[in-house]
Design a protein that fits this description.
By secondary structure, the chain is mainly β. The chain has a single domain, classed as Neuraminidase. 1% of the residues lie in helices and 36% in strands. A five-stranded antiparallel β-sheet has the order 2-1-19-18-17, with no helix packed on it. Strand 12 and strand 13 form a beta hairpin. The chain is globular and about 50 Å long.
Length: 301
């Protein structure tokens, strides 16, 4: 588990543009790539609470909810496996599909105990899960339901988990998932979900409740957790490629995304800033641009 290192930061962008280029600032002592390794050409999207989408690199803009009245703010996004579409999810469970992302249903018509906090696509892209802050899981399309926090804790009544859930990580074959909470990842495993553990001070059930995002590679044996202050924590066989822990951030980190080979990752801040590590290539950001609403999530192609 490590968290202190340096990265690359974008400080400027093209105001209002769907594609933004920025000034790359290389901070000293950033971890170098292995000899012969190259940064990926992968792109990524940032999504704002008002449904606005900002595309970078090879990520194509397929549409957004920006400028459209929403009943509840957008809280996250997920990309299709081929990177030619994406879903946005709102805190009331509403799902908005763009590009080749099909709409399979949503939790918007349900009475939710707590807000939805994220959406995760199945490995084949023919379904998705929504997850709520109390650990509720809602499955659509070919996404299977393998349980929720409340199923494991029926005696809890109306009480939710000790710490709010922040996301759901699918197993490699989609036949299970792991819920991550503010203390890390690995405490709540369903189906054949990943048992990889990562988080502040050693993983789930930590006394430090700062995690904001979790991710695992295609093998399910490597996992990463990001904290609001830019720290990155590793579990299993995951490599640490750097973080913004210990550095002054203008705005907190809100999400992270892995490169396809798991050899790097990006962190996204609420002001649109992007920090790239490992083989994650920096393609631009909305950092330094006046936004109508804060960035709440990101996804990679």
């Amino acid at each position: 588990m490590r968290r202190l290192a340096l990265a690359q930061r974008v400080s400027t962008g093209l105001a209002g543009g769907l594609f933004a280029l920025g000034t790359l600032v290389a901070l000293p002592s950033a971890p170098a790539l292995p000899a012969g390794a190259a940064q990926t050409a992968t792109g990524y999207w940032e999504v704002a609470a008002d449904g606005g989408i900002f595309s970078f690199g090879d990520a194509t803009f397929h549409g957004s909810m920006g400028g459209t009245h929403l009943d509840a703010p957008v809280v996250g996004m997920a990309a299709t496996p081929d990177g030619k579409g994406y879903w946005l999810v709102a805190s009331d469970g509403g799902v908005f599909a763009f590009g080749d992302a099909a709409f399979y249903g949503s939790a918007a018509t349900l009475t939710l105990r707590t807000p939805i906090v994220g959406i995760t696509a199945t490995p084949d892209g023919h379904g998705y899960w929504e997850v709520a802050a109390d650990g509720g899981v809602f499955a659509f399309g070919d996404a299977g339901f393998y349980g929720s926090w409340r199923d494991r804790n029926p005696q809890s009544g109306t009480t939710g988990p000790p710490w709010p859930i922040i996301g759901l990580v699918s197993s490699p074959d989609g036949r299970g998932y792991t819920l991550a909470d503010r203390s890390g990842m690995g405490g709540y495993v369903f189906g054949d979900g990943d048992t990889c553990r990562a988080g502040p001070e050693g993983g789930p059930y930590s006394a430090v409740y700062i995690a904001v995002a979790a991710a695992a590679d295609s093998s399910g044996t490597s996992c990463w957790v990001a904290s609001f202050d830019g720290g990155v924590f590793t579990g299993g066989s995951a490599q640490f490629y750097g973080s913004m822990g210990g550095h002054n951030l203008e705005k907190p980190i809100v999400d992270m995304a892995l490169t396809p080979d798991g050899g790097g990752y990006w962190l996204a801040a609420s002001d649109g800033g992007i920090f790239a590590f490992g083989d994650a290539g920096f393609q631009g950001s909305m950092g330094g641009t006046a936004l109508n609403a804060p960035v709440v999530g990101m996804a990679a192609t």
